[in-house]
Specification:
10 helices; about 260 residues; Rossmann fold; alpha/beta
Length: about 260
């Protein structure tokens, strides 16, 4: 299954192949709509497109994507701009992003769509404790699911007349927002905060390094040749030929 996950994630991260995965119809259900003095709150859900690609890789709770839409009751211009906010590590609910981000954007006439992260809050597997994922493979499921779900939400926003659109996230959310932007075929604003192009350093050298069971992973790696022979080349491919220094190039460099 690990090989399938990595191969699928590589497909998800490529624009042309991505349309084959997320190009279908995934109906969004509006579960709740509440009107307040100046705002409208909408909560919705839909089956994650990732479930179609790799059936049963997520449990029942996790396979349902959920979001909260925060809109101004009256738009001040002909445009209806919406910013999609992806969760940082440990940001399980909507409240923090709604209070610190969505409410402030409302004063500028900008709506917000707050996405519930896979493996978080109502999507958290029953045997998972807090924000700590049970398996390394869950990271690939989380990333693949978020990219496909975000793509579905962007299409839904367009169909409902919202735009221009933006993607935003802090820390892990910023990294995921960057991934989502790469597969959206149209111009879109991207605001990643406190993030980078990879999350690897956080688990290897950063604050989450001590949360990883390195002893078990090391034992599995050396006990099963599949990890070394098949899985590692998929995650960390060898250096492409175009980047290798040939003997001819090396000789020319020494002569120069």
């Amino acid at each position: 299954m690990f090989c399938r996950l990595i191969e699928n994630f590589n497909s998800v991260s490529k624009l042309k192949k991505f349309e084959q995965i997320a190009g279908g119809d995934f109906p969004i259900v509006v579960d709740m709509r509440t009107e307040h003095k100046n705002t409208v709150l909408v909560e919705g859900s839909f089956v994650s497109p990732f479930e179609k690609t790799l059936p049963n890789v997520m449990d029942a709770e996790n396979s349902i994507a959920r979001f909260q839409l925060v809109l101004p009751k009256e738009w001040t211009t002909k445009y209806k701009p919406v910013c999609i906010h992806l969760a940082g590590t440990g940001d399980h609910t909507y409240s923090r992003r709604r209070f610190f981000l969505a409410n402030r954007l409302l004063s500028d006439g900008i709506g917000s769509l707050i996405v519930m992260n896979p493996f978080y809050w109502k999507r958290k597997p029953k045997d998972q404790k807090g924000s700590s994922l049970n398996y390394v493979s869950d990271l690939f499921v989380m990333g693949g699911a978020l990219i496909t779900e975000c793509h579905t939400l962007l299409k839904w926003c367009e169909m409902n007349g919202y735009g221009p659109l933006a993607l935003h996230g802090i820390s892990m959310g910023g990294y995921m927002a960057s991934l989502c932007a790469t597969v959206w075929p149209k111009p879109i604003s991207l605001i990643p905060c406190l993030s980078w192009t990879t999350a690897s350093v956080v688990f290897v050298e950063g604050i989450l390094a001590n949360a990883v069971d390195w002893n078990t992973l090391t034992k599995q790696y050396f006990d099963d040749s599949v990890y070394c022979d098949q899985i590692r080349p998929l995650i960390q491919p060898s250096v492409p030929d175009r980047y290798k220094c040939t003997s001819t190039a090396a000789t020319a460099t020494n002569i120069g």
